[in-house]
Amino acid sequence: MIPPWLEQLESLGVLDLSWNKLNGKIPLWLGNLNNLFFVDLSNNLFSGELPESFTQIKSLISSNSSSEHASIEDFPLLFKNNSADKGLQYKHVSSFQPSLILSSNLLVGPVLCGLGHLVNLHVLDLSWNNFSGGIPDELSNMSSLEALNLSHNDLSGSIPASLTKLSFLSKFDVSYNNLAGDIPAGGQFSTFANEDFVGNSALCLLQNASCTEEAPFVKTGNEQHRGMDTAMPAMTYMTVEVGFAFGLLMVWNALFFIRAWRVAYFQMIDRFFDMIYVMIMVKVNKLRRKWEYKVHP
């Protein structure tokens, strides 16, 4: 679990605990560290809901709360999303993008509306969790947001049209949820690809087109496919049943009208059961002798 002694580090600005085996709930006090502006807890096993305190991180609400960081040119910082990433090198701690990266955990519950208060946040990544409910309209208040990743969750409802107000938003991904309706048009949304929205069966992927206009054609196609899907198995079963009945009738006719075949068939059956009987009796006698030897050696 996240050690409680971290709560005493009041000047802590950057916290990266990613790619570990940390579990349990994210502690409430983590959001009370006034200078914290970069948090990466991704690729762990954290569960439960996101603490409400994360909507009140002072350094992400007001730029006046963040402390000034000195230059550390002799000790460069390298930030990499994964082992294959070339990464970014920083000479100042303050050069890190203000970020909340909580991807690839077991977090549940809603996406907190209060996250909209974090006007200084640049990156919000909640992907690969189990968040549910709708996308809050309040996220449109995050005026500095550059990247929003909500993919691979269980979110429902529509994408708020107010998100088009995020003029700095360059990365947006809501793929593989349960979203529905139209994709908002205008603003930065005109630069996003369909890959950022796939995996939502009720979401219209054709930008600048209404899902309701396409619905009749989609419905008709689905009905045709459903009719074909139900007709094909029925024809298959019927063919198999007719073939089985025809084969059984042919065997029965051969045995009934050809006496030699009938005699040979029943002799074969008798020999088969005789063989089974002999094998069983041999096994029984062997087991009986072993048992008698153990009782009377």
From TrEMBL:
Subcellular location: Cell membrane; Membrane
Recorded coiled-coil stretches: none
TM segment ranges: 234-258
Cell membrane found in the keyword field: yes
Membrane disposition: Single-pass type I membrane protein
Pfam family, one: LRR_1
Key words, A-Z: Cell membrane, Glycoprotein, Leucine-rich repeat, Membrane, Repeat, Signal, Transmembrane, Transmembrane helix
Cellular component per GO, a single term: plasma membrane
Similarity comment: Belongs to the RLP family.
UniProt-recorded name of the protein: Uncharacterized protein
Species: Triticum turgidum subsp. durum (Durum wheat)
